[in-house]
Amino acid sequence: MDDTFGTISQWLERVFALHRNLMRQFANEEGLQLVHVEILQYLSVCNRYSDTTQAISEYLGQTKGSISQSLGNLEENGFIRKIQDKVDKRVFHLSLTTNGSSVIKRMSKFIDLDSSDTIVPELKLLLSSIQKKHGFRGFGICKSCKFNQNVGQSNFVCGLTKEKLSLDDIHKICKEHEEQSAI
Amino acid sequence: MDDTFGTISQWLERVFALHRNLMRQFANEEGLQLVHVEILQYLSVCNRYSDTTQAISEYLGQTKGSISQSLGNLEENGFIRKIQDKVDKRVFHLSLTTNGSSVIKRMSKFIDLDSSDTIVPELKLLLSSIQKKHGFRGFGICKSCKFNQNVGQSNFVCGLTKEKLSLDDIHKICKEHEEQSAI
DNA sequence: TTCAAATAGTATCGAATCTAAACTTATTTG
DNA sequence: CAAATAAGTTTAGATTCGATACTATTTGAA
After folding, report:
1. Listing from the earlier edge strand, what are the strands of the sheet with B164-165?
2. Is residue A1 one of the residues assigned to a domain?
């Protein structure tokens, strides 16, 4: 009973709470836990450098032990598959099965935010302001990353891995992302 | 690996995840669970019709049994107090103790979103669009509620309870809130 | 080359939360 | 005034969470 309602933070809290309730409701209807849907959602938008237990753990802010368990559950139930990296055998790449994909499609349809796109630039600003203030890095799209190099028409190279990236690639989110100095 | 990144929903997810990580980090530093901080935050902005177990349960989307347990914990540790309603003895009103208030003050300072206010109207639009689509009601500020009546300078009356509301009152959030037809 | 340190991921244990259901107490309704 | 409803608590079982230890692999430095 200290404050009145009106700051950005409080409006955000309210939207977050409502959005999470929706997600939870959807998860329940699918017979899943909230965290499972969050994992599937992340896997549907991350790139091939960021589809690992460790990356999910960083993104969702939970320990990798906990994420590992949830992943085991998701794999058992046929929502994701795990493929060992050919170069670094410690690493396993995760991806959605057809089954997992269809959950995400149903979720998008269920949540269905069709509000105007004018909020997106505001969200980007907010995001990068939070990241700067708290020294977070990672989880942006290649397009705005300082490591991303445009080497000709629709051809890109990641400066970190020296690998070629397709037009599709550069619209996924990456755990190594660092914002270009001039936004 | 189905989608690329860019829709409103995906940007929201990203901001949500980051914000929740911040909240969790803060909660950990205070020796609290995330849900405890969320409850304290809610209690700091709700009005006197909405400071109950049931209302918190609706707001956070968790069962009242679960919330009841967390509230017991918070009361034991001196963050909140419980006062029985004089009229309806089933109801207990919850409020922050000095201790609880100071947690919320530290949280605001910690999160510290100083981005421009231009995002607030966008958030309001988003919120009301989600609420309409999913038939949710409740948890808005009296100021925009169809039950709220202005009866003279800075004097308001709630059409549901017929009680007087102060200028401070009408900026808190209420579980009975219904948007005025013309936004 | 060799061996210690670092990294990715899993397994395990105790604590805490979550849901669902039964339950208590109080209020409202017919 | 009995039955239905509502607010809140309690209980039990399942799940998650965090911490720690563990395996396997890679890196790096003497």
Report:
1. B148-150, B156-158, B164-165
2. no
pLDDT of residue A6: 67
| B46 vs A3: CA distance, rounded Å | 9
The pair of three-digit structure tokens given for residue A139, joined into one six-digit string: 């989880």
3-state DSSP assignment of residue A157:
strand
Strands A140-141 and A156-158: unpaired
Asked whether residue A103 falls in the same domain as residue A162, the answer is no
pLDDT tens across A10-27, in order?
888 888 888 888 888 888
Residues 127-146 (B) with a CB less than 8 A from some CB of A: 127, 129-131, 133-134, 136, 139, 141
- Select the more confidently predicted residue: A31 or A142: A31
Which residues are CB-contacts of A137 (< 8 A; sequence separation ≥ 6)?
A: A131, A177, A178
Question: Which one of B76, B93, B111 terminates a domain?
Answer: B111
User: Band of the pLDDT at A5, cuts 50, 70, 90?
Assistant: low
Kindly state whether residues A96 and A135 are assigned to the same domain. no
* pLDDT of B5: 66
A-B contacts (CB, under 8 Å): 178
Residue of A nearest to B167 (CA): A4
Spell out the alpha helix ranges (H) of B30-91: 34-43, 53-60, 64-76
Q: How far is the CA of A65 from the C1' of C11 (A)?
A: 9
- Residue reference for tokens 């995002």: B119
pLDDT band at B129 (very low <50, low <70, confident <90, very high): confident
How many Å does it take to go from CA B60 to C1' C7?
38
B126 and B106 in one domain?
Answer: no
Residue at B163 is within a domain? yes
Mean pLDDT (chain A) is 82
Residue A31 falls inside a structural domain: yes
Same domain, A163 and A95: no
Q: Verify if strand C has an atom below 7 Å from the CB of B62.
A: yes
C-alpha distances in Å from residue B68, one per residue of A141, B43, B98, B178: 41, 14, 21, 26
CA B85 to chain centre: 21
Closest chain B residue by Cα to residue A57: B21
CB B122 within 8 A of CB A118: yes
